[in-house]
Amino acid sequence: MTSTEAINIHHQLHRTGLTTYSEGDPRGNQTISGVLILVGFSYLKKLQILLFLVLLVIYLITVTGNLLVIVLIKLNTSLHTPMYFFLVNLSFLEICFTSSVVPLLLFHLLVEEKTISIAGCSAQMYVNTIMGLTECCLLTAMAYDRYVAICHPLHYTTIMSGRVCGLLAGASWFISISVEVPKTMWIFSLPFCGSNRIHHFFCDIPPVVKLLCTDAWKIRIFGVIVSVLFILTPFLLIILSYVCIISSILKLPSVEGRHKTFSTCSAHLVVVTLFFGLALVTFLMPKSSSTSESDQVISLLNIIVPPALNPILYTLRNKEVKEAFRKTITKSIFAK
Questions:
Q1: Are 151 and 245 contacting, i.e. CB atoms less than 8 angstroms apart?
Q2: Closest alpha carbon to 106 in 258, 303, 281
Q3: Cα angle for residues 137, 138, 139 (degrees, 5° grid)
Q4: Model's pTM, two decimal places?
Q5: Nearest of 214, 149, 165 to residue 187 by alpha carbon
Q6: Among 133, 274, 236, 79, residue whose Cα is nearest residue 266
Q7: Is 45 left (phi over 0), alpha (psi -120 to 50) or beta?
Q8: What pLDDT, in 10s, does the model give residues 217-260?
């Protein structure tokens, strides 16, 4: 075979998604095709069935709970306020966020070959990263809503108009899509080589980047910039909002008034603590002490816990939602 023929064959393999390496290649004599393997929780062996059952129950509760919140708010005009408008967006986002990972994970827990196509991997990364970043921005918008409601109650309806709420929600989605789509396209435009095994249960950015043939330092720097601008900055804005909120609450004369006012933002505060707390654990955990197993557990908690708890926090501790739920049930019974 001539050198020209060898080059042509190599280019053809590259175009079809197959790349071969010689024995002298430091990455080994391996081939990456259009299929990747998500190793995930394979180390659990027979315990994967137990994990499947637990995750299935949590996933059904998550989807049902968030759908119930959306329907309940849509059917009750008394809940057509800025806070519940953002809650509808958050509930829809949580369904998409958890659905981008959990259904495939449930399937993989039941089969031996835990494969995913490169196209499927990129699609999963698109949805997961967009939803994650949108939630950061949306939680910030919700914090601003609570800040205006408590610190500037007389101007609340003027400041938080329908147009402003729409712009804040739209900006959250626009920022996330405009940031995460180019980043994901950049990652998957680069060639993969070496082992096709991803030591994770879904296509998260760090384990996928490890498969790249080239040095990914530019992608990592871009990731740090995105984290500072669109994760750390929203977190700091939320903290600032709650400093102002708590300051205003402490100025109220009665204890009952303070408790009643704080209860309107307690659910949001718990959600923020859960979401950003798990994110900070992920980013601040020393690489020397972290393992693929511990990384997967933290990622799994981040994906299933906040989406499952959100509808519970916003309904069980909220008199308006419970009253709306009672009225909806009553109407549906008497309508029959």
A1: yes
A2: 303
A3: 95
A4: 0.86
A5: 214
A6: 274
A7: left
A8: 999 999 889 988 888 899 999 999 999 999 999 998 888 888 88
